[in-house]
Specification:
The longest helix has 25 residues. The protein starts with a helix and ends with a strand. Helix content is about 45%, strand content about 15%. By secondary structure, the chain is α+β, with helices and mostly antiparallel strands. The chain folds into two domains: about 220 residues, no CATH class; about 110 residues, no CATH class. The strands form two sheets. It has a six-stranded antiparallel beta sheet, with helices on one face. The chain has a three-stranded mixed beta sheet with strand order 1-3-2. The structure holds zinc ion. Zinc ion binds next to helix 5 and helix 6.
Length: about 350
């Protein structure tokens, strides 16, 4: 903790206790902690939304796998609820990781970070923006510790000591895995850029005015000089209404179509909402997006059309402003561009 404090300049206000747990206790506690952040009731809708977009495969059991997969992902963690470090007792945690977790404790002591990104949907744009800030700052401190650490001291956790999945088929699908790890890479770049722009006072600025969207993380200048307020299109009365954001969309398109089309297809996203409504026959899912320009919208339409052609094995025209198809899972699956807006919607057929 002392190292993290020296590197970041945040004073230690309180000493944080450390608990070392065996595999089963570690797994159990990790799950309990995640359960505080998510809503079990909402998981079926998250699953429906992620499958509709193609972020997870139709046969992935998201509702039952999320906790299992998530609990095995961390080598050690700091819990702002328990105000404790939770460490495995079956392996040595490298000091670089302890410094990283200590920085999370300092963030919490100074800026009350448990209030950050408290959307129940782990992948919501607001959560990813908050996670990027917290992880970016902790990665910066960890990186600076690695630069000064004694030679020969290991910085990476022992991979063979990782907790294994309870259900092997629960391994996170590639796109989901990449989205959930995006805060570490994009967040670090964001923190470094803001630090270069603002100098040492940057920490107070970013934590007292945390970025609200992944777009601000990607383009730190938009965070420093906010543009006019963006149109929010969240629908409060729907069963589910969340924003996905530019980083997730970029990761999705990049994995499907390659780097160039991924970056191009997702850039210029002004706002988006994925909404689920109950209908007489099942559910209606609508993904609405608003773009900076008609050109940005067209690039997304073309990318999404290419992804859909492959996914459903149909030839869909990239020149048309829209299309409607019928699949085993969706009826009236429609994509339509109207100037700088694009809607992708469908009726979800019941599974039984
Ligand atoms: Zn972290």
């Amino acid at each position: 903790m002392l190292e993290a404090s020296k590197i970041s300049g945040l004073a230690i206000k309180e000493n944080t206790t450390c608990e070392r747990l065996d595999r089963e206790a570690f797994r159990k506690l990790a799950k309990e902690i995640i359960l505080k952040d998510i809503s079990k009731k909402e998981l079926p809708y998250e699953e429906m939304a992620l499958k509709f977009l193609g972020i997870i495969p139709e046969d992935y059991d998201y509702q039952n796998c999320l906790l299992d997969a998530y609990a095995t992902s961390a080598a050690a963690f700091y819990s702002p609820y328990l105000k404790k470090f939770i460490l495995p007792n079956w392996t040595e945690t490298p000091k670089a990781i302890l410094v990283h977790e200590a920085q999370h404790a300092l963030q919490d002591q100074h800026f009350n970070t448990s209030k950050f990104g408290n959307d129940t949907f782990l992948l919501s744009d607001k959560n990813l923006a908050a996670a990027s800030l917290l992880e970016g700052d902790a990665m910066e401190v960890e990186g600076r510790y690695i630069d000064i650490k004694p030679k020969g001291e290991n910085a990476d956790p022992d991979k063979s000591a990782k907790l294994s999945l309870e259900n092997p088929s629960c391994e996170l699908p590639e796109i989901l895995q990449e989205i959930l790890s995006s805060p570490y890479d994009y967040g670090l770049l964001f923190v470094r850029n803001v630090k270069t722009a603002l100098g040492e006072k940057y920490l107070n600025k970013i934590f007292s005015h945390p970025p609200q969207t992944s777009r601000e993380i990607l383009y730190y200048k938009e965070y420093l000089e906010p543009q006019k307020a963006r149109q929010s299109i969240l629908k409060n009365k729907a069963l589910f209404s969340k924003s996905i954001g530019e980083i997730s969309l970029r990761v999705f398109l990049r994995i499907k179509l390659g780097m160039k089309k991924g970056v191009l297809g997702a850039s210029g996203l002004q706002s988006d909402t994925i909404t689920i409504e109950k209908t007489a026959e099942g559910y209606k899912v609508i993904f609405k997006t608003i773009w900076d320009s008609e050109k940005d919208a067209s690039e997304f339409r073309q990318a999404m059309t290419e992804v859909s052609s492959r996914r459903f094995g149909m030839h869909l025209s990239k020149d048309a402003l829209g299309w409607t198809i019928e699949t085993a899972r969706y009826s009236k699956l429609t994509l339509l561009q109207t100037s700088s807006k694009i809607e992708l919607m469908a009726d979800v057929k019941y599974k039984d």
